Amino acid sequence: MKDGTGLLETIDGPDRLKELTADQLEKLAGEIREKIIGTISRNGGHLAPNLGVVELAIALHRVFHAPEDKIIWDVGHQCYPHKLLTGRAGEFDTIRRTGGLSGFTRTGESPYDCFGAGHAGTAISAAMGFSAAESLSGGHDHVVAVVGDGALICGISLEALNNLRSTCRKLIVVLNDNKMSISESIGAIPNYLNRIITGRNYNRFKALAKMMVHRLPGGTSVIGNIQNLEASLKNLFVPGIFFEELGIRYIGPIDGHKLPELIRTFERIKDFTRPVLVHVVTEKGRGCDFASEDPEHFHGTGAFHPDTGKSDRTPGDTFSAAFGRALTELTETDPRVVSVTAAMASGCGITDEYRQKFPDRFFDVGIAEEHALVFASGLAAAGFRPVVAIYATFAQRALDCIFHDAALQDLPVMICLDRAGIVEDGPTHHGIHDLGFLRSIPNLAILLPRSEAELQAMMEEAHRRQTGPVVIRYPKGASGYSPDDRPAPLEWGRAEIRRQGTDLVLWAAGRETKTAEETSDILKEKYGISAAVVNTRFLRPFDRETFLSFAEHMPVATLEDHVKEGGLASQAAELLAESSAASRSRLFPFGWSAGEVLPHGKTADIRQSRGMTPRQIAETLAESLKTMSDHAS
Ligand SMILES: Cc1ncc(C[n+]2csc(CCOP(=O)(O)OP(=O)(O)O)c2C)c(N)n1
């Protein structure tokens, strides 16, 4: 090591941190920030959350002894400094790339990732599991859960806090409070935390009282009385009384960028024999001007210029943007329309302008998917027309609410599922199981737009005729259809025949209609096979008539960006099984396999490696048709 430069390269594990001086630790923090900015500028990823926890990760790994001590990062999106400090600096350039490090904690990746994550609000419960296991097995290792202020308000986190004192003798919760979820944290608990941070009255009062008492003759003997007074005043305005009342010792707020203070605090509390919450105040995007100035944009980002934060990509149209446009139009034209999101406004295409224009009709309930769905159901029951914007994978949290509250009561809630299909972030974020869950729920219509324009048309139509709950699901990004490609008028429950064919029908879900059209082109050009293409449009109510009219005469291939089990392929198989077409038709399902945990990485790579490109699908189908005709002759 020369003059403290290149320190990061020498960090082969957290033990190395224990040898460094205070100055070296500060230097290391700078190097970690540089490494993260440089790497994420190329690979994309969660920038601002990670820049905010550099000192916190250093302090935790300096004081605790992972992997024996367990450090559990909620969501896991802020685990980059943790990865850099736990022997993964050498591979860090591969983060989020195909075959590279995951952008979240993942148990298979390292013993230091003791619990995998991706969805918010699980760290305290998981840490409680580790802590209870320590007690049961007579162990003495420490367990630390690091939770953001956004994730703290998740139902699971609050359920865990409620259960903490009665279940765990020892556990450390680090509350990483940067006042931000993806957007600003809102609600009573974030407000309360904010009051603790800004409310200096109590601290001032305490310091003043102590000073005055010491100056009094015999002052020290009065200290006992003052402490009694303090105990009663605590109930009025001590910071953290909320946690104290739950049986959790509250420490803080402390500056999350002052390493000595962090280290001192963790050293002091690590052997407490009751649950403790350390309230650490951090700045999202710390040390990078553009990220700290716009932490919402730089929460999760694609590639950018490392000096300016600017991106070369010209933003084209996307499904999310089309959703935002249709939502704006509906909100403008019908006073009953309101929108609800669970902390995903910007990702879902709900723009700042929309939020400013309709402040009373837009509800961001925080990371509370279950509440979002039941709240929307209440609004619908009261005569409003709620539109819920949520990512497909996070909607899984609210399945029972979709079933029990929206669907059983047949309420007009429009549930728009963004990021349905595979995404770069990996298994926790792929939206490829929703149809399997949703297709068995009564009263629920399920619509699958093939393009941005069709999404808008579906939202308008669903709103116009809506009597019960509707799910509209669409993927991240763009459809590939030109903006001039106008969808044919929608007929409720009817599929759209895109092109006729004589040898085979490619029956596609949503954007896979584009894949089917490209496949059909290749089949024609390369193999002389004439393939019809149908855009499903409605998975429920399903267009049985059109489906069977094709299946009576030709084999069917289903294409979906979803696992084959439970989605379109299952729908097709069920229909064939109950109709006479089954004896004549063959089904070739194309989609993901529920038996495999799909990795992270470029979606194009995932498609390619699983035979899901148009060229590969065409080749598979051509071979299958040939085998069929060989058997027949
Ligand atoms: C169940 C669930 N809903 C939504 C998300 C999307 N999401 C990822 S990070 C995040 C914000 C988390 O805020 P906080 O816990 O305060 O952490 P910070 O990013 O501020 O460090 C959200 C909403 C998620 N991961 N899981």
- Global structural class: alpha/beta
Instruction: For the largest sheet, list the strands in their spatial order.
Output: 7-6-8-9-11-10-15
Question: Which radius of gyration do the C-alpha atoms yield?
Answer: 28 Å
Shape assignment: globular
Alpha plus pi helix count: 26
Task: Tell me the major beta sheet.
Answer: 7 strands, mixed
**Ligand names:** thiamine diphosphate
Number of strands: 17
Fraction in helix:
40-55%
The percent range for strand residues is 5-15%
Please give the alpha-carbon distance between the first and last residues: 75 Å
The low-confidence runs, each spanning 5 or more residues with pLDDT under 50, are none
Would you mind describing this structure in some detail?
The protein has 633 residues and is of the alpha/beta class. The strands form three sheets. Strands 7-6-8-9-11-10-15 form a seven-stranded mixed β-sheet, with helices on both faces. Strand 16 (556-563), helix 24 and strand 17 (587-592) form a beta-alpha-beta unit. Helix 17 runs parallel beside helix 19. The N and C termini lie far apart (75 Å). The structure holds thiamine diphosphate. Residues 49, 75, 77-78, 119-120, 148-151, 176, 178, 180-182, 284, 343, 367, 369, 394, 397 line the site of thiamine diphosphate.
Topology:
Elements: H1 22-43, H2 48-51, H3 54-63, E1 70-73, H4 80-85, H5 123-136, E2 143-148, H6 149-152, H7 155-167, E3 172-177, H8 188-198, H9 201-215, H10 219-237, H11 241-245, E4 249-255, H12 259-269, E5 276-281, H13 289-293, H14 319-333, E6 337-341, H15 345-348, H16 352-357, E7 362-364, H17 369-381, E8 385-391, H18 392-395, H19 399-407, E9 414-418, H20 434-438, E10 445-448, H21 452-465, E11 470-473, E12 496-499, E13 504-508, H22 512-527, E14 531-535, E15 537-540, H23 544-551, E16 556-563, H24 568-578, E17 587-592, H25 603-609, H26 614-632
Parallel strand pairs: 1-2, 2-3, 3-5, 4-5, 6-7, 6-8, 8-9, 9-11, 10-11, 13-14, 13-16, 16-17
Antiparallel strand pairs: 10-15, 12-14
Helix pairs in contact: 3-12, 5-7, 9-10, 14-21, 17-19, 22-26
Bound molecules: thiamine diphosphate.
